[in-house]
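Journal club side-thread
Mid-discussion, someone asked how the predicted structure for our own chain would compare to the paper's figures. Pasting it here so we can look after the session.
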Amino acid sequence: MTTALPTGPKPNFWRDTHPNAVLSGFIAILIGWAGPNVLIYSVQQAAHLSDQTAMSWLWAHAVLCGLAGIFLSLRTRMPVLATWSTPGIALIVTALPGIPFPEAVGAFLLSAVLVVLLGTFSRLTALLQSIPTHLAAALNAAILLPFGFHALSALTKQPVLVGLMIVAYFVTRQLASRWATAAVLVVGIVASAALGVWHPAPVPFALTQPQFVHPEFSLRATLNLALPLTLLAFTGQFVPGFGVLKVNGYEPSPGLVLRACGIASGVAALIGCHNLTLGALLANIVSGPEAHPDPAKRYTAAVWAGIINIAFGLFAGTFLHLMGILPPEALAALAGLALLAATGGSLQTAFQTHPGSLAAPIIILVTLSGITPLGIGAAFWGIIAGLLVYAAENLKRSPAPR
């Protein structure tokens, strides 16, 4: 699959942008803040962090991810979304308690340096680009399918609310497909209010103040945080993230992305935040067909996502309160429907070019299983299993030498 780099006139962000790009960027950030970002509460409770520390963590994540995504998207003219390592924060929930926070910050900083070093080895980054497109599509489909499952689960809990959102999506898709996701968002807000299932409450409006943390280094924090965080960032975010972009027709230089995310992570670490990485789950929203009718201009959706993420980060406490207004079922339905087209496209790409191959089904099964041998995420084991099956099938097809 070729990249979406245009050969026409020099791009202009304002000329290239589209209402769908703004909407896609907003939805990607909205879902991120309503989902993975609220995990900061679990970390705060487990490690007994102050509110100021937790909000500074969110500030660093949102502002620096926004800046990294804007830089990479404008530099490559591809929709590159930066986010924090979700597998990493899941690890931190259990690994951070008992480690002084300055030592944890030292581990965050060391992990950022390791990511930058990984981005300097061309042979390592070349491996990311050598994954066959249909296998990357299978991995992407496995990552996206749970969003659809969660939407159906939400339907059983709030049948009227989620049912109206589903109807709005498919009706609008037939009339004006570009506005289908917008219709879902509007119907979700109106229906939540009409049904009395939202949770309006006074929302404080105030800038979040970041705090500098002087890093300290220890062997314990290095072994328990720095090394596992680096491995999880690579296997749980960068590998599937590049797969998402490849499926949608984009292949940015892995070295550039790794170095940019590593440098941004180093700055974020000093404000108390762990690894910033390439987006995987949410990247489909800004790189899929609903983000912009022209694939060469979808980079604008990722730029808008970065701008909106920075705005959210500057008022981290305010927007976390706003996320609690809509019921979780509405947010689950919004995510599942916004990613439905990307899910279908990935499944089609995964199976149409290699009929009869078991590599793609193996990737989907292993990834969806959620297994974590050696503490490494299922997405990594899924692509490894798929590549082994793919290699075995090709070996079998190869004619024996005379």
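Post-session note: The chain has one domain: 16-342.
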